[in-house]
Structure formats: structure tokens, C-alpha cells
Amino acid sequence: MPTDPFWEPVFRRAMDDPEILALIAQDTPDRMLSDLIKPNPAMALATAPFIKHGRITSHKQVLQVILRQASREESLRRVLLYQWVNDNAVAMTFPTIPPDESAAKRLAAGEFGPPLKIRIIARLDPRENAKSLYKSVLAGSDENAAAETRAQQTTGSAVLPTDTASADPTSGNKSVATLVKRLEGDLSAARSEIRELRRKLKDTESARSDADRRLSIEVEERRRLEKRIEDEQKQAISLRREVSEVQAQVVKLLAECARHEELICVGETKKSSDDTEGKLSITKSDSDAISISEARIIELEELLCRRDAAIARLEHDIDRFRDTGKAQLDAEKACKRLQERLGSTESALAGMRAGGLYRLILRDAEGTERGFRALIEGADASRLLLPSNIRPPKEAVEGEWLWLARGPNGQPFELFAPEAAVRRHISGTLRLNEGKATVENDDGVWPVFAPIGEFSDGTPVAATLLPAFLERPEGVWALRAHEVNPISHDEEIISFDTIRRRLGLISLDETALREWIHDKCIPCTPETGGLRPIGKIEALISELRRSLPVRAVCGHADCRIHAQSNPFLRSARPDELCSVCFEEADEKKSGHTNSYDFGGTRVLIVGGDAVGPHYRESLARHHLDVTWISGFESLGAMRAGLGDARLALVVLKQTSHTLLRELLPAARNRGVRVAFSPKRGVSGVLTRLVELLKPRVASVHP
Fold it and tell me: Model-level pTM?
């Protein structure tokens, strides 16, 4: 909030008044209280038990914590006070109104807010003659008494003992005992909060210990499984070797059996029966050995299958543990990245909040790219030469408003371009006429505020167009030449219809155009159906666009009919005034016109120079006494006559910043209400006056 010699001592005194801060904290919405608590770690911890899912469950406890913290931090008291002042602009206008009977009626009717806001204004208002007015309005209000009781309860330990004792000098020991009891209650609440915080810290440490223990168990289990897999693999190799040996023995036994069968088939019948029985017994023993070996092979194969299944299961567990460990690592890395991003975002946000709006005066103050330094100017006319490591955005031009972000130490660290979205790049022809430079193309003509340099009349240029903002008018703020190959149309005829389309006209009177060309000695020859330029057609079009007396008219039917007598008409562009009704072209017009009775109320209208002379005449039929002054002149002698006006209405689009700095303090000192109108048309200004003054509707005409 800007420094004001009237309000600054009042606000300084209010920041040291615990009762005002208690009332302001009670009148502050929960959302804003949460915004105050979040950036402060101490308040966030203290209020955590009383905030669930982003909602405050115990206003009394939360307000006690905020006020206790505000009693120790001046910055928090400043934020509470100035935030309330900015959010209650209507209520803050009452101290600027004379404290008469009508003001008391408006205050009691609730025009400036409920009783709680009135009680805050009563403590802020330094006027002694207004005390009785506040007292009479608040005397019969039960709601105000209840609000004061709640504010005193939530003040807690933030209220100094001297305030309580001074309220009733005769209370003596009773007041001291009450304070001691209250302080003991606050101490008990603080101890409870400390116990709760210690319990939460212990739970957090216990959860962390459990997580570490589970992680160590998983690591140990993983090692055990890896060792078991290694042992199983060794055993599997041994079993496969044993199976190979048994299979070799089986092959050997089968070979011997085949040999014995061959001997039997040859028919060695000469041997005795004993030998035959011996051979048979040998053959039988060999068959038993083969059966045992086959059973052993089957058993070993089953064992191998079980071993393979166990190994596969263990490998699956190891992979699962590895995936779990990798996921934990990824989660930790992501958490760390998010914390770093949060820190950088908070730093950038703090820098944006601590920054300010500056206008770029000079892009290179030293003339070399290596030693680049920019010169910027603030809204208070203070200038700053930026260090060489901070450069304006590439597309920013001199005269453009930029936002300077500052670091934690208050030093500038980055420039942003909020006007990048409205900055336009156009191409056209540079025209120099009587010391004034303009850029022209088929869309219009714009004044040039950038240095012309060595450019000459008729040079094709690429221009950067900036809209009107504060004291800066709309126009071209950067120029550069570019190569084009203009099409030559020497000795050709351009038709009247083509001229109308190129100039964007609604109507074109050919006879009037011929007469005007003859009077102005335009270098061309009128022909049947058109003009024959002496030179190039583009030069003729540029001359007509610059010199032809064209009138802009809006799309309203009455305005079009009224303007038919003018030979050169075009449609008014958005935000441009109609030459008939003096309304902006993009402003919607109602089918009904109401007549109001303002009862001869005197108002001062500042700015809106294009329509200013018509305000008094147009608004007089509504019984308004209008005084108008230009938005680009000094207040001068009008300062003494401000006290007679009930309202000062500022038209934003055509009012200089210098006049605003002069008008606002003068109006405040004389108790004149100041309001602003975003529209400059007569109906737009009337609509704003109806909203502010609420006159009686005299009649409604269809």
C-alpha cells in the first residue's frame, strides 16, 4: 500500500494495538488465514491439530496462535492490517466522509459493512469528532458486543497486561488474578501442543526405525537366498555328474546282457546244466542291477526337477526384491527432485512477490554486447541500472513495462515481460510529416515514439506496437528496416471500389472525393470510374489514408442513418469512439433508455478527453451537475473546488498517472469519494454513476 502522510501514523499505531489485530483476525476469512499460516513453519506446527484436510476446525485456537505469533513478529501484524485494509476498500472510505447525521444513517444501515467492520473502523479513525457517532451506532448492537467478547477471548497472551489494567483502574487484584489465570491457561495449552508435537516426532522416528528394520531384514533375506541358490546349483552339478556315471554303468550292463544273449542263441549246448544255471544266475543278477539303476535314475531326475523348481522360485524372489529396492530408490530420487523443484518454485514465487513493475528505458547502457547493462524506471520515477548478468527478454523494447523479480537478499535476479501477449509486430511504411512520424499500412496509422535515426520518408519498416498503459500512449516503440520489393503500378488506374476497400470505408462519395482531390492538390488525375496516380498507387493510397477526412461510426442503426450525410465513413474499430454518439464501438447498446433523477448532484469527471466536452451536455438531462477536466492537465485551481463535489469519477483510458498522484491526496483531504470508470463513452460513464450514486429512476422509454 503506498505511503500516505494521513494514514501511515494511524496504521503504525494500529499495528501495536492487540485489540484491533484481534478484531481484524476475526474478520479475516479462513482461506486468507490459511495463506498466512502455510509460509510460517512455527505457526503451521502449532495449528496442525486444529486444521483437518485444509479446513479450520477450531477458530479460537488458530486465532490464538496467529495473534501470539503476531505479538512477536511485526511483519505478520503488517500483513494482517494491510490485507484487511486492501480487502475492505468500501469500509475504509467512511473515515473520509464528514461525520454528520447522514453519515451516521448510512453507517447504521450497513452501507460500510457489518458491526464488526464498523468496530474496526472506529478504532482506526483518528477523528475525535467521529467518536460519538461510532458510539451511538454501536451502542444498541448485540452483535458488536459478542464480536468484542470473542476478540478479547482470542487475544490471549497477545494482549498486554497493561491494556487490561488500564481498562479499569479500580479492578486491582481481580484483574491481575484474571490475567494470571489466562496466562496459566495459555501455558497449559502450549504444554499440550509441545506434548502433541513430541508424540508426533516419536511416532515419526518409530516409523522410520521400522522401515529401516524391514529394509535390513529384506537385505539379509536376499543374501541368504543368494547363498542358498549357490549351494543348490553346486548340488545340482554333483547330481548331474552322478546321473551321468549311473547312465554309463547302465550302458555297460546292457552291453554285457546283449553279449550273453548272443552266446545263448549260438547254442552252446555242450556245457553242462550247472554251467547253464550259473550263467542264468549271472543273468538274473545283472537284471536286478539294471532295475536298481533305473529306479535310481528316476529318483535322481525327480530330485533334479525339484531342485530346478526351487532355484526358479528363489531367482523370482531375488528379482522381486531387486525391483522393490529399485522402486524405493526411484521414489527417493523423485521425492528429492520434487523437494528441489518446490524449493526453486518457492524461491521464484518469493522473488516475484518481492519484485515490482518497471519500464525499460535503455536496453544497452554501455553500448557493447559484452558489457550489457539495462536501465529501467519504476512507477515512482526511480531509476535502476541492472547488473550485466540480468538482461531484458529478447523481444522487449524500450518503453515496455517489465516485472523485476528480486532474490531473498533483495537483489534483482530476473526480468519478465508481462506485456508479451499484447505486444504486436506490424509492417508498414514510415511517413514523416511536419516533424511527426507515423507508420501506415492497410490496417491503420500509428504514431512513432521510437528514434527515427537515418530512416527517410517512405521507408518500409517492421515496427513493434505497444498498447496504451499508464502514461504511455499507444504507438510504435521500436523500428527496423527490412527489404521489400514494392509493386509498381505507374500510370495505372485504381477504381473507386478498390480505394474504398483499401481504406476500409463503408461508403465513398465519388463526387466529394474528386472535389477534395482538386482542393488538396493530390498528385493524381480523376478518370471515369477511378483515379490515375502520378507515381505509384501505394503512395496515393498512403496519402489518402493520412489526409482524407474519414469519420468513424459504430454499428448502431441510428448512428449510421445520422452519419449518411458524411461522404467518407468507416466502421469504428474496437475501443474506438463513434463520431455520432461518442460511445465505444465494442460497447453493447440497450434497446431501452432510462431517465434518472440525480437531484442536481455535482460530480467531477476527470479524463476521457475524446468525449470530455460532451459529458456535461449529455448528462444534464439526468439532473447531474458535471464539471469536467482533461486527464492530461494539472489539477490547478480545481483543487479548491473539490469539496463541493459528491464524487470524483476518473476515466481510466485517458488519464495520466501524474494527474492521479495529484488528485487522490487532494480528494482524500477534502472528503471527496473517488471512483474509476473503465468506459469513456457517455452511456458507460452514466452506468458507472448509477452504480455509485443509486439515483431515482425518473422514467423508462422503450
Answer: 0.33
